Amino acid sequence: MGVRWDSALFLVLVLVVSFAEMSNGGRTSTFVRNDDLSLDMPLDSDVFKVPPGYNAPQQVHITQGDYEANSVIVSWVTPDEPGPRTLLYWAENSELKNRADGVVVKYKYFNYTSGYIHHCTIKDLEFDTKYYYDVGTGKATRQFWFITPPKSGPDVPYTFGLIGDLGQTHDSNRTLTHYELNPIKGQTLLFVGDLSYADDYPFHDNVRWDTWGRFIERNAAYQPWIWTAGNHELDFAPQFGEPIPFKPYLHRYHVPYTASGSTSPLWYSIKRASAYIIVMSSYSAFGKYTPQYKWLEQELPKVNRTETPWLIVLMHCPMYNSYAHHYMEGETMRVMYEAWFVEYKVDVVFAGHVHAYERSERVSNIAYNVVNGLCTPIGDQSAPIYITIGDGGNLEGLVTEMTEPQPSYSAFREASFGHGLLDIKNRTRAYFSWHRNQDGYAVEADTVLLINRYWSSLEESKATT
Ligand SMILES: [Fe+2]
Question: Can you give the residue ranges of the Fibronectin type-III domain (predicted)?
């Protein structure tokens, strides 16, 4: 009897395992780590060093300054007095130095007063050119450089880095270092929200916005970081007199939103090389008739895939996420916008928020009409791939708890810190790789060859490089 029960139990187990395998579309990495918290780097850490000299510019960072990528916004902070609102810039092979004018803003947040925050737009740049720029005066002048992208075109190769939820811990520093030292060089960073995590400190200690600005300067002063707002940018704290959402973020990080007809810096779009990048705001109104909805409704039909074949959407909260943490938080956004993403054949949607990595299959879940019961994601070759890359390494730590079994929409998931690279080769092919911080710089922990949705209906799984 006992033997028969054991056999029956074994048979049941086999069936359960087989069923789990059958219903399991993807792979959960065997690379399992503890969800121990990562500590912020101390204030006297080298990465936060204040540059020497009276009123020396600090927290220098750049972003694209217009729709077409002929402009760059340079931002910096002077601590003691406003100083000059201008900067000098020149092309690498030119003697002629030009001056660009900017604005200076300042804000108070609870008992904190910011330094003088400069935003200066350099316009009418040549494509594919290296420029140097000087900020500050006298002995405190600091020099940086950047390279403009090639003019937009269908087969222009270009490499984007992907980082989200970075914070300022030792792990954050590892993530940025790995991005910098990856032999595949990212030329522009797509940042999917949650920057400094200053709001995790008492009264949202805005000093941590300053330290974060100094931490990222080593990369963000030399290549554009394309900004997406996350929930940690809200800084909404009416309990101590700060009821205006996004106040520190919007003072510190300017984006070229008016150039794409947007009415808010929280959602906008840019063209860069062969990519069209749409930035959305998970924490602004996005229901029907809202400004964000109306803007996106106009925006998607504008995208010319012959000029910019790669249609990329950035948002903070993922629409497809199989971790227990933040599970289904992106559902309202999915209900509103997924059908458009399928209709306009978005290639890839990058999000953060979940402190882990996940890549979806090409799936959609748009058939449901309240009464028909069709509410399961299905394979859809017009749908984007959804990639969650909220694994920058902030002080809240990794999320390791996953929904089980792994849903069929989830192709690969792993709770490790890291960064991503989207290496666009031409109008049909782009190579995405995910790099975890524990590996050597060149190691790819997950990869996918993306086949452009507008230019080819070929399935990725059937493609060869
Ligand atoms: Fe978040």
Answer: 56-151
Q: For residue range 113-127, what is the model confidence (pLDDT) as tens digits? A: 999 999 999 999 999
Is the pLDDT confidence value at 16 over 70? Answer: no
Ligand 1 centroid to residue 282 C-alpha, Å: 10
Residue 51 corresponds to which amino acid? Answer: P
CA of 232 to the centre of ligand 1 (A): 6
- 79-88, 93-102, 203-212, 454-463, range with the lowest pLDDT: 454-463
118, 119, 325, 326: which one is catalytic? 326
3-state secondary structure of 126: coil
Residue 3: CB atoms within 10 A of its CB come to 7
Q: How many domains does the chain have?
A: 1
Q: What is the DSSP letter of 327?
A: T
Separation of 167 CA from ligand 1 center, angstroms?
Answer: 11
Q: What is the Å distance from ligand 1's center to 324 Cα?
A: 14
Per-residue pLDDT of 300-336, as tens digits, reads: 999 999 999 999 999 999 999 999 999 999 999 999 9
Q: How far apart are CA 104 and CA 11, in angstroms?
A: 72
Structural domain that includes position 415: 153-193+266-464
Cα 458 to Cα 158, 290, 463: the distances in Å are 22, 36, 7
Q: Would 255 be classed as within a structural domain?
A: no
CB 436 within 8 A of CB 447: no
Do β-strands 310-314 and 108-109 pair in parallel, antiparallel, or remain unpaired? unpaired
Q: Evaluate whether 313 touches 226 at the Cβ level (below 8 Å).
A: no
Note if 326 is an active site residue.
yes
**3-state SS, residue 76:** strand
Is there a domain that residue 220 lies in?
no
Q: Is residue 451 part of a domain?
A: yes
**Cα of 220 to ligand 1 centre, how many Å?**
21
Structure tokens at 100: 């660009």
Torsion angles phi and psi, residue 296, rounded to 5: -65, -35
| pTM (two decimals) | 0.94
Which CATH number do you get for residue 158? 3.60.21.10
